[in-house]
Design a protein that fits this description.
The protein has about 300 residues and is of the alpha+beta class. Helix content is about 25%, strand content about 30%. It is elongated, with a radius of gyration of 22 Å. Bound molecules: zinc ion (ZN).
Length: about 300
């Protein structure tokens, strides 16, 4: 079955439509074993975080998670999506976010509405942190899972890379409420071979030194700088890594991109029995909510499943 593209789906509820043209800026340090991505969500942060009511601590965590998957999905060399799911026993019991190879982002947070916690370990409690790379229905999904460990989401992500992946990664995530609304961003560095390969790079004194220097410079980035909507990413990267011959690659767009559609949801409804559908219908209408968008899709009972008047 081919889904109706969202833009042709005239019956689709009003799902937000926003593109941030230069959301992710990839870069590398010439002749050094370092490449990275700078992520700035711009107006998307506020749009994605405010789909439903959540306490500020949970939203700040959600914004950081969005910036993280946006940055990591840019490294994908195929069609698919990169998702992060954090499940714990704290007030934020579930945080799920993903980003496709084309930069479509979405987020769902399940949190206690009255929590006043703001620190990530207290919000998440004990649980796990899972990254999944999904390349479509006919391929194996690659999943890595580690225990939640670290003082903030940046440390949790680095703990994941240290235990699950083969190469060094440096991650710093930002999200705060500003006079312009919520803003979120990320700076991610990856250690690569000096010739551009991704096998981690030779551990020579010179390469170790370049990697450590890049991390020290990256660490000088402030929240005020990365969340400043006027400051351009290229300018910021030259300011940070100007002494290390930083080369900026083509920026990539990010967008509000949930894949919910009437076709997909009616496909789900079709798996229920006619009796179940009759129970779900209120005054002849079945309402399906997309948890990412927090938008209701309405189906007349006779649009889905076994029709009540089917005589076959
Ligand atoms: Zn949706």
């Amino acid at each position: 079955m081919i889904d109706t593209p969202a833009f042709l789906d005239s019956q689709r509820p009003d799902v937000p439509n926003l593109v941030v043209p230069r959301g992710v800026t990839p870069f590398y340090l010439e002749g050094r074993p370092v490449r990275g991505r700078m992520v700035r969500l711009g107006a998307l942060a506020d749009l994605l975080l405010c789909r439903r009511e959540n306490p500020d601590g949970a939203l700040a965590l959600g914004g950081q998670a969005l910036a993280l998957v946006a940055g990591l999905s840019t490294a994908l060399k195929f069609q698919g999506s990169f998702s992060l799911q954090i499940k714990g026993d704290g007030p934020v019991s579930l945080l799920a976010t993903d980003c496709t190879d084309t930069g479509d982002l979405r987020l769902y947070i399940r949190a206690d509405s009255d929590t006043a916690e703001t620190a990530a370990p207290a919000l998440l409690g004990e649980g796990y942190f899972a990254f999944t790379v999904d390349q479509g229905p006919d391929t194996d999904r690659h999943q890595g899972i580690v225990a939640i460990e670290g003082q903030d989401l940046s440390e949790m992500a680095m703990h994941y890379f240290a235990t699950s992946e083969q190469h060094d990664c440096w991650v710093r995530l930002f999200c705060a409420h500003t006079p312009e609304g919520w803003q979120a961003g990320a700076l991610i560095l990856e250690r690569i071979a000096a010739d551009g390969g991704i096998d981690g790079g030779e551990s020579t004194a010179e390469n170790d030194d370049a990697w450590e220097t890049a991390c020290v410079l990256a660490d000088t980035l402030t929240e005020g700088e990365i969340l400043d909507p006027v400051l351009d990413s290229g300018t910021l990267l030259h300011r940070l890594f100007g002494t290390m011959d930083v080369q900026i690659d083509r920026p990539r767009a990010l967008a509000y991109g949930c894949r919910c559609s009437r076709a997909k949801l009616s496909g789900i409804l079709d798996t229920f029995s006619g009796e179940d559908l009759d129970h779900m219908a209120i005054d002849g209408t079945i309402v399906m909510n997309c948890e990412f968008c927090n938008i209701d899709f309405r189906f007349a009972r006779d649009e889905v499943g076994d029709r009540p008047d089917d005589t076959a």
